[in-house]
Specification:
Blueprint lengths: L1 H19 L4 H8 L3 H29 L1 H21 L3 H33 L4 H24 L4 H19 L23 H31 L9 H15 L1 H8 L1 H21 L3 H15 L2 H11 L5 H29 L2 H17 L7
Helix pairs in contact: 1-4, 1-5, 1-6, 1-7, 3-4, 3-5, 3-14, 4-5, 4-7, 5-13, 5-14, 6-7, 6-9, 8-9, 8-12, 8-13, 8-14, 8-15, 9-12, 10-11, 11-12, 11-15, 13-14, 14-15
Length: 373
C-alpha cells in the first residue's frame, strides 16, 4: 500500500534528520567558540522549538489534512539542516535550532496522525513498525553524517548531501500521503474541540515513558561510570544496549501487539521497563546494569506507539489534535525529566532517582487499560 510505504519513509526521514545533527554539534562548538554552558543552552532551543510547534501542528493537520503538513514540514527539515552549518554566531545558531526543532516537531505530529489513518485503513497494528523505522533512521543519520565528515567532506556539503536525500523522499512520496480519512474513507470535517481528559492521561503516560528514555540518554553513562565502576570509554555501552533493544522491540512490535493486544503491551512493557531500572540500580554488578538497560529498551519500545495509536482513535477529537497533545506532553517529559532526575540525584543519589523513574513506570502499568480499543 503506497500510503503505508510513504509513512515508513517519512518516519525514516525524521530519524535521519534528527540524528544528522548529533555529529555536527562538536563542529558548531568549535567554530563559534562556545563553552559548555552556552552550548547546553543553545542545544535546548531544538527541543523548545519542537514542543512549541507541536500544538500548532495538531491544529494544522486538523484544518488542512496530513498530506500538505507533512510535505511542507518535510521541506522545512531539508532547508534547516544546511542552515545549522552556516550560522555566523550563537544567536543565529539558536534561531536555526528553533526552526529545525519546530520543523521536526510538526513532522512528528503529522506523520503519527497519518500513521493512525494508515492503521485504520489496514485494520491491523502498524505503529510500532513505523517507529522502528524512525530508530533505524537515527542510526543511519548519525552514522552517515559521521562517515561523510570522517571522509573529509566539508560540513556544509555533508549537510546538503543529507538534505538532498531527504528532499527526494519528500518529493516522491508527497502525493501518496492520505489527506485525512474517517471510517468510511471521507475527509473529516468539524470544528476544533479541546482534547478530552483521556487524551491528557495518555499524555501523562507518554511523559513518563519519554522521561525514562531521556534518563537513559543523559544518565546511563554517568550511572555506569560513577556507580558501577565502568571506565569512561565503555560507559556508553548502557545506552547502546538500550537503543538496540528498543529498535529490535519496535521492529517486532506490530506482530506482538496484534497477538497480545495494546493493553498487555502497555501493562507488560511498563512492568518490564520498571524491572530493568530496579535490576540496574539495586544489583551492584556491572553486567546486571547492562541487562537491566536491555529490559528498559525492550519494555519501553512499544508503549509510545500504542499510546499514539490510542490518542489518534479517541472519538470527538481529531487524530492530529490528540497526537499533538500527547506528543507535546511526552517531549516535555524528555526535556525536563533529565534535569529533574539530576535534582533528585543531588538530594539523594542517582540510583535512588532512577528508582523513582521505575516507580512512575509501575504507575503506567496500572493505567494500561486506558488504551483498550
Amino acid at each position: 500500500m503506497r500510503p503505508a510505504r510513504a509513512t515508513r519513509l517519512i518516519f525514516l526521514l525524521s530519524g535521519i534528520g534528527m540524528a544528522s545533527w548529533a555529529p555536527m554539534v562538536p563542529y558548531a562548538k568549535q567554530r563559534l567558540g562556545l563553552d559548555d554552558a552556552t552550548l547546553g543552552l543553545v542545544l535546548l532551543c531544538m527541543g523548545c522549538g519542537a514542543v512549541a510547534a507541536m500544538p500548532l501542528a495538531g491544529f494544522f493537520t486538523h484544518r488542512f489534512g496530513n498530506r500538505d503538513v507533512i510535505g511542507i514540514s518535510g521541506l522545512m527539515v531539508c532547508l534547516a539542516l544546511p542552515l545549522l552549518t552556516i550560522a555566523p554566531d550563537v544567536y543565529w545558531l539558536a534561531a536555526a535550532l528553533l526552526f529545525f526543532g519546530a520543523s521536526l516537531g510538526v513532522v512528528d505530529v503529522a506523520m503519527n496522525a497519518h500513521a493512525v489513518d494508515v492503521e485504520k485503513h489496514a485494520g491491523k497494528p502498524m505503529m510500532s513498525g513505523f517507529h522502528g523505522l524512525f530508530s533505524v533512521g537515527g542510526l543511519v543519520g548519525s552514522a552517515g553524517m559521521a562517515a561523510l565528515l570522517k571522509a573529509g567532506a566539508p560540513l556544509t556539503g555533508s549537510a546538503l548531501a543529507v538534505s538532498v536525500a531527504l528532499l527526494a523522499i519528500v518529493l516522491t512520496q508527497w502525493k501518496h500521503f492520505i489527506v485525512r480519512l474517517d471510517e468510511d474513507g471521507h475527509v473529516r470535517g468539524g470544528g476544533f474541540r479541546m482534547p478530552s481528559a483521556t487524551i491528557f492521561l495518555l499524555g501523562f503516560l507518554c511523559l513518563v515513558v519519554f522521561l525514562a528514555e531521556g534518563a537513559m540518554l543523559d544518565w546511563s553513562a554517568v550511572f555506569l561510570r560513577f556507580s558501577r565502576g565502568f571506565d569512561a570509554s565503555s560507559a556508553g555501552l548502557g545506552y547502546a544496549a538500550f537503543s538496540v533493544a528498543m529498535a529490535c522491540g519496535r521492529l517486532l512490535g506490530d506482530r506482538i501487539t496484534a497477538h497480545v493486544g495494546p493493553v498487555t503491551i502497555v501493562r507488560g512493557g511498563a512492568f518490564v521497563a520498571a524491572l530493568g531500572f530496579f535490576i540496574a540500580t539495586l544489583v551492584p554488578w556491572g553486567p546486571a546494569a547492562l541487562f537491566g538497560f536491555v529490559l528498559v529498551g525492550l519494555g519501553a519500545s512499544n508503549i509510545v506507539p500504542v499510546l499514539f495509536s490510542a490518542a489518534g482513535r479517541q472519538s470527538g477529537t481529531s487524530a492530529g489534535i490528540g497526537i499533538a497533545t500527547v506528543t507535546s506532553l511526552g517531549y516535555a517529559g524528555m526535556l525536563a525529566g533529565p534535569a529533574a532526575i539530576g535534582f533528585a540525584a543531588h538530594l539523594s543519589s542517582l540510583p535512588t532517582a532512577l528508582c523513582g523513574v521505575a516507580v512512575l513506570l509501575v504507575i503506567v502499568s496500572f493505567c494500561a487499560s486506558i488504551v483498550r480499543r
